[in-house]
Amino acid sequence: MKNLFYKLFLEKTEDTKLQFFRYLFVGGFAAVVNIGSLFIFKELLNIHYLIANIIGFILGLITNYILSKWLVFSKENDLNPVLEFITYAIIGVLGLGFDTLFMWLFTSIAGLYYMLSKIISTGLVFIWNFFARKAIYVLIDKLNRKGEN
Predict the structure, then answer these.
(1) Whole-prediction pTM value?
(2) Is the torsion defined by CA of 105, 99, 10, 134 positive or negative?
(3) Which of 9, 65, 66, 100, CA to CA, is 20 to 30 A from 59?
């Protein structure tokens, strides 16, 4: 059982299926932080839903970054920290833009309850974040290998 847990969650891997499996757990926890923060800022602090969404997204993004760096993407540890941060920031800013756009479209245009909009948006942005990060790290790895030859 201990070996299975280690293999599923802690052992470094480049296997996309296993990384995606881990990212589901990391993303799930980050989504709880994101959605929970949105609810707290909107309902308890009475902040406009789009502003509350941005704050929640940033808190979820920080959570996701820390956990995915540790558990999901083993190649990130080989990167220049400045390049890694810039890459993550670009993906994060684009993800925030998508999330805010989806929240506005689903809530203000389609008339959905803001929490339902958030759940839908979170799923869409989750897919974007994983595959964007994976693609960039594969590209960086290829460039590093090319430079070694």
Answers:
(1) 0.74
(2) positive
(3) 9
Cβ contact 65:81 at 8 Å: no
Identify which of 73, 74, 33 has the alpha carbon closest to the alpha carbon of residue 56: 33
3-state secondary structure of 86: helix
Q: Are 128 and 96 in contact (CB under 8 A)?
A: no
Q: How far apart are CA 93 and CA 87, in angstroms?
A: 10
Report the candidate in 82, 78, 102, 101 with the shortest Cα–Cα distance to residue 90. Answer: 82
Output the pLDDT for position 56.
95
Backbone angles phi, psi at 80, to 5 degrees: -60, 130
Residue type, 64: N
Q: 22 to each of 50, 70, 145, how far by Cα in Å?
A: 29, 11, 26
